[in-house]
Amino acid sequence: MLAMLTASCYGSAFSIAELGTRAAGMGTAFIATADDPSAIFYNPAGIAFLPGRHMQMDALAVVGLFRFTPSATPVDQVVPANGYSGSIRPHFIPVASMYMTQQLTERMTFGFGVFVPFGLAANFTNFNDSDPALTKFVGRFAGTRAALQEYWFQPTLAYKITPNMSFGVGPAVVHTHLFIEQSILNPLDDGLTFGRDAANKFLPNLPVDEAAAILARLLPEGRSRVAGTANEFGLSAGWLYFHPRSKTSFGLMYRSAVTNHLGGKASFALGPATAIETYLPANFLYNAFPDQHVTGSFTTPATYGFGIANSRFRNTTIEADIRFQDYQRFNTVPLDFSINNASNSDIAVDPEKRLAFNFHNSINLAFGAEKPIGRTMSLRLGFMWDKSPVPDQSVGPFFPDANRLSFTVGATKKRGNRDFSLFYEAMRFENRVTNVAANDDIYTNGAYRNFAHLAGIAVHFDLGESILFGRH
Amino acid sequence: MRSLFIRAWFAAALSGSLAAQVKPGLDTTTWVVMGEGLAAGMGNFGLSSPLQNFSFPAQAAAQMHTGMSQPLFEPPGIGNFIGTPTQEVRLHTYPQGSVRQFYSVPDSQVTSPPVFLTNLSVPQLTLTDSLSLRPAPPIAQRDMKQTTVNLILGFPQLFLDRVPLWTQFEYAQAMNPTMVLIELGYYEALDAAVNLDPARLPDPSVFGAQYATLVAGMATNHAQVIVATIPNPLDTAYFSSPATAASIVGANPSVIISDWQITAQDYVARAALSVISFQLLSASVAPLPAGSVLTASTAQDLTARINALNAQIVNVARAQRAVVWDLAGFLHQVKVGGVAAGSLTLTADYLGGFYTLDAVYPGPTGNALIANNLLSFLNATYGKGLPLIDTAKVAALDPVVLYQKPAGAPGHIIRRK
Fold it and tell me: I want to staple A429 with a disulfide (CB 3.0 to 4.6 A). Which of A36, A37, A450, B400 is the partner?
C-alpha cells in the first residue's frame, strides 16, 4: 500500500487538495460534510460520526499541459514554436492516499491516514548537457527539475462532544523529500564572476568586463542537484457541528505549518570540456564543485478552513468552503554547503545559497453539491477558485503558476459494503505574463499558459459497525 | 487549498512536430573575426600595432563595447607583403623587446600576452589555410606564413603543454562566439591580381564548398555569421588607370599611354609608378618590368572570377542563414567616388589618403570608414543602434590622410621632350 503512495505532482505553489475522491467531486468543498474516512485530511472531527470500521483508498491521476513562451531570450535562441513544455514522465502521475477509521467507543473514533498535502514535480529538462546552449531550455538557470513530497502519517482521534458536535485532532509524523536541479555557470551571472576573476590572467589586453563576458562563455555549463529529506511533526485538528432542524453543518479545520530541516546531498555535473579547461590546472573546475553534504530548511504553510453545508433542499447537500494558507512562510529556502569557499578559495560553492521565493498568503474558495440518485448512487458537482501565492518574481520552471478555476464532477456507486467513487476536474489557469527586471538574466519572463486534467478513483469499505471498546 | 496537477509530455511531443522559432538578432558579446591581412590591420607593408590598433574590427568592437583581443606586434611587425619579394624571417633584435606585445598583469610583476584572441586574422591566409593550417613548432620558421600563423594562432600555445594548436577555423569554434565575421578570399584575389594571372584564383565550386564548411562550423555554435564579399583588387590603389597614374607621377596621360603602349583601359601596378617616374625624370623610356601592367582583358577576367567567388559566398550565406556584408561594394564606391572623413575627401588612388603606401590595405581612417560601413550594415540588418566612429577624430591622428599626389595640372612636372 505504501508503495502506491508516490506523490509526485505539481500544484499551484505545491498544495494538493484532491486527496479524497468524493470531496474532489464536490470541488473539494468537504470541511462541513466530512463523512467518509478522507475526513482525516479534510476535517478530522468528521470521523467521529463514522460508525464501526472503515477503510478507503484514493488514487488520483493528473495530466498537465504547461506552456512557457519567453518574452526575451538570448539572440538566436531556439524556442519551440508553441513555447516550452514543462513535462514529467510518465505522462500522468499517480497520487495515492489511504485512510482507515475505527470507532473506539460510542463517542470516540480513531483514524489513521497517509496522504500528501504538499507535492511538486517540475521538469523543464528538454535537453542533454552536450546540446548547444541555444537549443536548451532558456530558463534552465532558474531551474530544470524539482520534486517535493511531504507525506503525512497521521493518527487521529475524534470525540463526539454531543450527538451533533465533535472535534478531532491528529498529530502527524511528516516525512519530506525535496529535490531541486538547476543549471549553473550562467554566462550572465555566476559564469561572469569567474570571468572577472580570470580576466587579467587570460585577457590582460581587454577591459575586465569585456574580458569577463568572453571568458564566461568559455566555461562548460553545469548542473547542480540538491536532494534532501526531513522528518518532522505536524498537527491537524477540526471541529464539526450539525444542526438537525435546519440540516446545516459547520466545520472548521486546521493543519499546522511544518518547518522541514533537510539533510542531504548536493552534487554537481559539468558539461563537455571547453577551450578554457585545457588552460586550467587539472580537474580545476571539477574540484571547484565537489559533491557534498548539504542542509537546508523550508516551511510548508499552515491551512485554516471553514465550511458550511446544507442538505435541506431536495435532499441535496450543498457546501461552501473557504481556506486560507499562510504561504508567506515560504519566503526563502536556505541551502548550506559543507564544503565551500569560506575556507578554500579553489571551491566555487558559497557557504550558503538562498533561494528566494517570497510567496504571498493564498486563499481558496470551493463550492460543491452532492445528490443521491436512488439508494445506491450519488452524483456530484463542484467549482473551485484558487488564488496563486506565487509572486511574479518566482514564476518560473519550479512554479509556473497562476490563479485557477476548476470545475469538477463525480459519482459514487454503492455495492454491498463497498462503494466506488470517481471524479474528474478540469483546471483552467489564468494566462499569466511576467516581466520582472531581476529575472532578465535567467529568462523566466514571458507568458505562462497552463491547463490540467485531474481524475480520481476511490474504493471505500464499510467493514461493519463494531465498536472496539463496548457494545454497539 | 491549492490543487494539484502535473505537466504532460505529450504537449512537448506536439511542439516537436512544429517548427522551432529562432529569435533573430545580434549578440556582440564574443565577436570573432576570421580574416586575412585586411581584417588583421595590415598596412604599410607589414602587420604591427600602430595600425592593428586601428584595424576595422578593433574600431568597430570599441563602438560595440565588445572585447576585441588582437595579437599586437611590436614595430616593425611581421608579414610578407604581396607584390614584393618574400622576406626572410628574422628573430627580433634590439630595440624590439619582443615580437608580440605583452601586458602587465595588475597586482603582479608579470607581463603576459593574451591567452585567447578574438581577431584571428592572419596576413596571407587563404580560405584553405583557414581550414587546415595550424601552428607548428618551432615558432620561427623559414616560411613567413607559417611563422605568422605561429605568432598569431600559436602564441602562447606553442610554449604551453597539452594545449591544442588550432587552425583559424578550429580556434573560432573554440571561442564559442556569438558573432563571427568572415573576411577571407581577399588574399587569393590579391595574389591573382598582382601576378596578373586570374587562373590563380580558386575554382568557385571548391571555394564554395570550403566556405560552406566554414560557415556551417560556426552555425553549429549558433553564432551569427556575417560574411564579407571579396573586394576587387582593381578597386584598391594598387592598380591605377593611365590617367590616375599620370596624375600620380605628374605626367600627361597621353605620355603614359604612348610611351609605354598602355591602353586607356589597362591598369598600372603600384610598383610601376616609381619606375615610370624615374624613367621620365631620366628621359629614358624603357619597357616596364614584368607585372607592371594589367591588361583590360585580364582585368575583365579577374573581375569575372572574383564575382564568381562572391556569388558562391552569397549562395552559402543564403543556405546557412548567414548575412552578407558587401565590403567589396563599399570599396568599389570609394574607388569610384571617394569618401568623406570629416572635412576631408579620401580617394582610393595611390596617395589618395584611404590606402597606406602598400596600396592594398587601408590606413587608420580607411579602416574607420570600413568599420562605419560595417556598423551601419549591422544597424540596418539587426535593428541595432551602434554608434558610428567620428572619422574626423581618427583622421586627425592619421598620417595616411596627409599623403598627397603632386599638385597642379597633369604634366606640369614632367613634360615630354
Answer: A450
CATH number (domain holding residue B56): 3.40.50.1110
User: Cα-flanking dihedrals φ and ψ of residue A244, to 5°?
Assistant: -65, -40
Q: What pTM did the predictor assign?
A: 0.83
Residue A205 belongs to a domain: no
- The shortest CB-CB distance from A201 to any of B9, B69, B105 is to B105
Is residue A343 within 8 Å of A65, Cβ to Cβ? no
Torsion angle defined by CA atoms of residues A75, A77, A83 and A86, in that order, rounded to the nearest 10 degrees: -130
In order along its 417 residues, chain B shows pLDDT tens digits of 344 333 332 233 333 333 455 556 889 999 999 999 999 999 988 899 999 999 999 999 999 999 999 999 988 888 777 777 776 666 666 665 668 888 887 777 778 899 999 999 999 999 999 999 999 999 888 888 999 999 999 999 999 988 999 999 999 999 999 999 999 999 999 999 999 999 999 999 999 999 999 999 998 778 899 999 999 999 999 999 999 999 888 888 888 888 888 999 999 999 899 899 888 888 888 899 988 999 999 999 999 999 999 999 999 999 998 999 999 999 999 999 999 999 999 999 999 999 999 999 999 999 999 999 999 999 999 999 999 999 999 999 999 999 888 776 555 555 544
The residues near B58 (Cβ < 8 Å, ≥ 6 apart) are B41, B52, B68, B70, B119
Residue B9 in domain:
no
Give the distance from CA A18 to its chain's centroid. 12
Q: How many whole angstroms separate alpha carbon A308 and alpha carbon A314?
A: 17
Beta strands (DSSP E) in B60-190 are 103-104, 111-112, 179-183
Q: Which of residues 13-32 of A touch B (CB under 8 A)?
A: 13-18, 28
Provide φ and ψ at A307, rounded to 5°. -140, 150
- Cβ contact (<8 Å) for B67 and A211? yes
Number of domains in chain A: 1
- Please tell me which of the candidates B6, B27, B115 has its beta carbon nearest to residue A279: B115
Residue B109 lies inside a defined structural domain of this protein: yes
Range of the domain at B364: 26-402
Domain CATH code at residue A89: 2.40.160.60
Q: Residue A37: inside a domain, yes or no?
A: yes
* B71 inside domain: yes
Place of cell 591602353: B263
Question: Chain A: nearest CA to B324, how far in angstroms?
Answer: 17
Domain total for chain B?
Answer: 1
| Closest-CA distance of chain B to residue A471, Å | 39
CB contact (8 A) between residue B176 and residue A79: no
Q: What is the dihedral of CA A334, A335, A341, A347, to 10 degrees?
A: -140
Q: Scanning every residue of chain B, which has its alpha carbon at the shortest distance from the alpha carbon of A305?
A: B1
Residue A207 maps to a domain: no
* Residue B29 to residue A217, Cβ atoms within 8 A: yes
**From the CA of B220, how many Å to the nearest CA of chain A?**
8
* Nearest-by-Cβ selection for A17 from B3, B11, B26: B3
Question: What's the ipTM?
Answer: 0.89
Which of chain B's residues have a Cβ under 8 Å away from the Cβ of A205?
A: 69-70, 72, 101, 103, 113-114
**Residues A382, A387, A388, A389: is their CA dihedral positive or negative?**
negative
In this complex, how many residue pairs, one in chain A and one in chain B, have their CB atoms less than 8 Å apart?
Answer: 226
Look at residues A360, A411, A358, A402 and name the one whose alpha carbon lies nearest to residue A382. A411
Secondary structure of A365-402 as H, E, C letters: EEEEEEEEECCCEEEEEEEEEECCCCCHHHCCCCCCCC
Q: Which residues of B touch A218 (CB under 8 A)?
A: 116, 175-176
Determine the structural domain holding residue A105 and report its residue range.
2-185+220-462
> A112 in a domain, yes or no?
yes
Half-sphere exposure of A282 (CA within 13 A, CB side): 2
Beta strand B179-183 with B31-35: parallel, antiparallel or unpaired?
A: parallel
Do the domain assignments include residue B337?
yes
